[in-house]
Amino acid sequence: MAEIDFKQANESYAANFGDNGKLSIPPSKHLVVVTCMDARLNPEEFLGLNIGEAHIIRNAGGLAKESLRSIIISQRLLGTKDVLVIHHSDCGMLTFSDELLRSKVIDAHPGDTKVSEAVNDLQFGPFPDLDRSVKDDVAFLKNHPLVLKEGNITGWVYEVETGKVREVV
After folding, report:
1. Strand ranges (DSSP E) for the chain?
2. CB neighbours of 1 closer than 8 A, spacing ≥ 6?
3. What is the four-CA torsion angle of 95, 98, 99, 102, rounded to 10 degrees?
4. Ranges 1-10, 24-33, 35-44, 74-83: which has the least confidence
5. pLDDT at position 5, please?
6. d(Cα 146, Cα 111) in Å, to the nearest integer?
């Protein structure tokens, strides 16, 4: 297990929890943030968000297609309007292809047809161009019939080297 005492950390967190248990379920800023699972990113901090203000949806690469189910729930049931798509510099999704990762998984399980079949059915979603991936994700959301059009859908890049965000679209 990771070298952290989760129980002790939680005790400290709970001791300072205050009135957070009384926050409403819908986020107060009516905002959804779609971003990468990269451990170097702390979107609440670099966006100046507090607990209860936004839904933060994270996955490998911060891909909109993988976030769609959560965005629909957030908008349709919990009243969010605006969507920020935030990818980041030095992203691992820029470093491989589907074929490379499939081969790596298959090679780790020689002769296992179940593994081969399962991994060949997956698309991991790597991208070769950071800004293009942000633009594609924003276009996907803007054009999807289940995503509400009342709010703004914008795309950003977080620079892991400086901590700054820049608007792409």
Report:
1. 31-36, 54-59, 82-88, 153-158, 165-167
2. none
3. 110
4. 1-10
5. 85
6. 42
Distance CA 55, CA 70 (A): 9
For residue 26, give the DSSP letter. S
123-143 pLDDT, tens digit per residue, is 999 999 999 999 999 999 999
pLDDT (tens digit per residue) in 150-162:
999 999 999 999 9
What was the pLDDT predicted at 121?
Answer: 96
In 10 A of CB 31, how many CB atoms? Answer: 20
Whole-angstrom CA distances from 75 to 13, 29, 32, 45, 108 are 29, 12, 8, 23, 41
Name the nearest CA neighbour of 59 among 123, 104, 129, 115: 123
Q: Are 89 and 38 in contact (CB under 8 A)?
A: no
Over range 72-84, report the average pLDDT. Answer: 98
The per-type count for the chain, helices as H runs and strands as E runs, is 6, 5
Instruction: Give 47's strand partners.
Output: none
Per the CB < 8 A criterion, the answer to whether 66 and 136 are in contact is no
What does the block give as tokens for 39?
A: 């451990």
Q: Which two structure tokens, joined as six digits, stand for 149?
A: 């059009």
